[in-house]
Amino acid sequence: MRDPPGLPGSHVDPGESSREAAARELAEETGVRAPADDPREIGTWDQPSREPRGRYSTDAYAVIVPVGIQTTAGDDARTARWWPLNGLPNHLAFDHADILRAAVSS
């Protein structure tokens, strides 16, 4: 069974902020580049049971990209693609649907 689609993300490298990590991970996993000061903070998701692989906390950010920007899967992403908000898959990884709802409403 395939894993449900999820948002790009991973860890914060030594010496970088979570905002810088968000911009880096976006570029590494999708090929979409944004200046490190562009990501807009959405919030933190840190419920103890949110991730079955262990205890993780997510600082979520949003970036506005021009229409037509192409994605290219890289790093540890198998695929990368855009989904219309009104056509998202029924199931997203972990609590990523909650993160998207917060991003759209902010």
Describe this structure in words.
With 106 residues, the chain is of the alpha+beta class. 22% of the residues lie in helices and 10% in strands. The chain is built from two helices and two strands, in the order αββα. The protein has helices spanning 18-30, 96-105; strands at 40-45, 58-62. It has a two-stranded antiparallel sheet with strand order 1-2. The chain is globular, with a radius of gyration of 13 Å. The N and C termini lie far apart (34 Å). The mean pLDDT is 93.
Key traits:
106 residues, globular, 2 helices, alpha+beta, two-stranded antiparallel sheet
Major sheet attributes: 2 strands, antiparallel
Shape: globular
SS class: alpha+beta
| Rounded average pLDDT | 93
Number of E-state strands: 2
| Side-by-side strand order of the widest sheet | 1-2
State the end-to-end distance: 34 Å
- N to C succession of SSEs: HEEH
Count the DSSP helices. Answer: 2
Strand content: 5-15%
Radius of gyration: 13 Å
Low-confidence stretches: none
* DSSP helix fraction: 10-25%
